[in-house]
Specification:
Blueprint lengths: L1 H15 L20 E6 L2 E5 L7 E3 L10 E7 L9 E6 L2 E6 L11 E4 L6 E3 L3 E2 L1 H10 L3 E4 L5 E4 L1 H8 L6 E7 L12 E9 L2 E3 L1 E11 L11 E6 L5 E4 L2 E3 L4 E8 L2 E6 L16 H9 L19 H11 L10 H11 L14 H11 L23 H9 L19 H15 L2
Parallel strand pairs: 8-10
Antiparallel strand pairs: 1-2, 1-3, 3-4, 4-5, 5-6, 6-7, 9-12, 10-11, 11-15, 12-13, 13-14, 13-20, 15-19, 16-17, 16-20, 18-19
Helix pairs in contact: 2-3, 4-9, 5-6, 7-8
Length: 435
Amino acid sequence: MKKKLFCVFLTLCLVLGLLPVTALAEEGESSSGYDYIYWEFEKGNLVKKEGNVDNTTEVTSSSDKTSWYNGWYMLKGKGGYNSGGGIVHIYGGTVTVMGSDGGAGIGGGNGSYTLPSPVSEIKSGESVYKSNLDQLVFSGKNLTVTGDNCAKLVFDTEALKCIAGQTSDPIKVEIEDVSAEYQNSHPDKKVFYLTVSSCNKTITNFNGKVTVILPYELNEGENEENVTVWYLTNSGILIELPCKYDPETKLITFEVTHFSLYMIGIDTWTNPFVDVNENDLFYENVKFAKQNNLFVGTSNTNFSPESPMTREMLWTVIGRVDGGEKLYGDGVFEAAREWAMSAGITDGTNPKSNITREQIVTILWRYAGKPEANGDLSEFSDAESVSDYACDAMVWAVENGIIHGNDNGMLMPQDNATRAEFAAIMQRFIEATVK
């Protein structure tokens, strides 16, 4: 009789949407047709086990393990549903069990178990269960990771939710000082490697924000106003980040949305160009391009910001972003042309011709892998002048803030781009897409 009542209850749960249909797994095999996953309570968490363990319940969910805290799942005792099985509802920090014959595995019969408050602070190198992140997200709490010399990472709930959605295994967070490895390329700088990993997987993007606090001690003669943080990309490009340095605590604070290498030091930039001034709108763009050796100037002292950009110049800059070590010196333009053709971003024709704004974004779009874009260009009065071949690329560039319209709401897709304009477009492209 009890078994029949249990089946009726299960059916009602499915009909009413209380039990996700995905919980009845189709993948995997077992004697009852379900894909069983073994769990047990350990320090207040549901912990996944590799095999059948005494006093362990079986949760039949094969797909949506990332949000177990907010749904209904099947439970099965060691002897089957009529010897300890039932339904479990996990919501927030409370696990409620409705047993069938013999009751479910948490204390036997119906009942509930309130999980203790989730861990909200760990040390660098330590791990937390995925279920702990779920509880932090549900309760609106951050996770703090502490390291040596007062280093600290603070993950907001959006970042934790994104991380928890990418794995079902424990998560390890590490703050590692790797400055010694970069002293040849970046002397007198501090370099930190920040990582989030789960088993053999590295999780780099979080969507939410992580507040990063790292130590930096001024060297003799250094000015606190010049302390800077850069994100160091895989190709060696430095992207400067907004930051705040406290000389009393000797700590620098900044925010990120993904992890990799971050470098701290003094900005020693000296402007070599007589035709680029600090009050120019493109000053920071030229600085970025020169510091990263993307542009080398038309001479040692001139950048020629208003000169038109040519196709071969464009291929050269993108090739350098891609890590082309040979794209300097004699024969650079021909080497860049060959690289661009092999990369499939151009046919290599008319290398010395000026290049238009829509041609630039089309080549960048191809280099980025032709990503999809869902918007339109209706906000611009000259949208109809965008060529058909460049439409998808232009929508993508606008959506990602890579290209802007002018003060009159025009994209000017057919206008030739100047070197200063391309420096700005290229910086925005790198900051939006290069990791």
